Task: inverse folding
């Protein structure tokens, strides 16, 4: 699975197959789902924070 997504204001989730670039969002045919759910947004945000705290996800350094 290779999904992309955003969490906004700990209230909205946007889950999509699209790369989040201008090119992908304007020229490609992609599908996404916008969900307004504070509980779910917080749960997913907390899960990512735990992955970062446990060094499972690490910042990219160029």
Result:
């Amino acid at each position: 699975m290779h999904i992309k997504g955003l969490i906004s204001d700990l209230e909205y989730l946007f889950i999509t197959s699209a790369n989040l670039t201008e090119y992908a969002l304007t020229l490609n045919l992609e599908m996404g789902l916008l969900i307004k759910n504070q509980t779910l947004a917080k749960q997913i945000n907390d899960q990512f924070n735990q992955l970062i705290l446990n060094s499972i996800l690490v910042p990219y350094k160029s």
Notes: The mean pLDDT is 88. Residues 4-53 form one domain. The chain has two helices and three strands. The CA atoms of residues 3 and 17 lie 5 Å apart.
